[in-house]
């Protein structure tokens, strides 16, 4: 790429340009007044169809997106299915709710997530 100016910003040849994905993932115009709140309905097909396809980028986007996207999704789903068949998960008594989030390159719960895995009765 040659040196250029985009919306008043000079970008020098060979300069690394990186998107601020955090700002995209927490944009109130996209996710509503409380983008940090866990609302899984945001990802239902009818709600997903209303958003720009690059509004959620856990694996990047475009031709250089993560090559392991599909494998990671399938492995994650299989792991969750196998765990939920054997256990019920409940919040630990020491779990602080709501979670206090620490922001950085990724977001993390400050004290982790404490749950109890209760074996299911699989005899039936």
UniProtKB/TrEMBL annotation:
Topology relative to the membrane: Multi-pass membrane protein
Keyword annotations from UniProtKB, A to Z: Endoplasmic reticulum, Fatty acid biosynthesis, Fatty acid metabolism, Heme, Iron, Isomerase, Lipid biosynthesis, Lipid metabolism, Lyase, Membrane, Metal-binding, Monooxygenase, Oxidoreductase, Prostaglandin biosynthesis, Prostaglandin metabolism, Transmembrane, Transmembrane helix
Cofactor(s) of this protein: heme
EC number annotated for this UniProt entry: 4.2.1.152, 5.3.99.5
GO aspect biological process, one term: prostaglandin biosynthetic process
Subcellular location: Endoplasmic reticulum membrane
Pfam families: p450
Presence of keyword Calcium: no
Residues that, per the record, bind heme: 66
Family annotation (SUPFAM superfamilies): Cytochrome P450
An example Gene Ontology CC term for this record: endoplasmic reticulum membrane
Gene3D superfamilies (UniProt xref): Cytochrome P450
Record bears the keyword Iron: yes
Catalysed reactions, semicolon-separated: prostaglandin H2 = thromboxane A2; prostaglandin H2 = (12S)-hydroxy-(5Z,8E,10E)-heptadecatrienoate + malonaldehyde; (15S)-hydroperoxy-(5Z,8Z,11Z,13E)-eicosatetraenoate = 15-oxo-(5Z,8Z,11Z,13E)-eicosatetraenoate + H2O; (15S)-hydroperoxy-(5Z,8Z,11Z,13E)-eicosatetraenoate + AH2 = (15S)-hydroxy-(5Z,8Z,11Z,13E)-eicosatetraenoate + A + H2O
UniProt GO molecular function: heme binding; hydroperoxy icosatetraenoate dehydratase activity; iron ion binding; oxidoreductase activity, acting on paired donors, with incorporation or reduction of molecular oxygen; steroid hydroxylase activity; thromboxane-A synthase activity
Family as reported in the entry's similarity comment: Belongs to the cytochrome P450 family.
Subunit structure: Monomer.
Role: Catalyzes the conversion of prostaglandin H2 (PGH2) to thromboxane A2 (TXA2), a potent inducer of blood vessel constriction and platelet aggregation. Also cleaves PGH2 to 12-hydroxy-heptadecatrienoicacid (12-HHT) and malondialdehyde, which is known to act as a mediator of DNA damage. 12-HHT and malondialdehyde are formed stoichiometrically in the same amounts as TXA2. Additionally, displays dehydratase activity, toward (15S)-hydroperoxy-(5Z,8Z,11Z,13E)-eicosatetraenoate (15(S)-HPETE) producing 15-KETE and 15-HETE.
Identification of the protein by name: Thromboxane-A synthase
Taxonomic lineage of the native organism: Eukaryota, Metazoa, Spiralia, Lophotrochozoa, Mollusca
């Amino acid at each position: 790429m040659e040196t250029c100016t985009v919306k008043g910003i000079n970008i020098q040849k060979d300069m690394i340009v990186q998107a601020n994905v955090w700002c995209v993932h927490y944009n109130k115009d996209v996710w509503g007044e409380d983008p940090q709140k866990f609302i899984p309905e945001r990802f239902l097909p009818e709600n997903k169809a209303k958003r720009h396809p690059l509004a959620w980028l856990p694996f990047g986007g475009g031709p250089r997106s993560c090559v392991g996207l599909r494998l990671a999704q399938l492995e994650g789903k299989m792991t969750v299915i196998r765990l939920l068949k054997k256990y019920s998960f409940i919040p630990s008594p020491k779990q602080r709710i709501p979670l206090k989030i620490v922001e950085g390159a990724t977001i993390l719960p400050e004290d982790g997530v404490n749950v109890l895995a209760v074996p299911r009765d699989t005899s039936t």
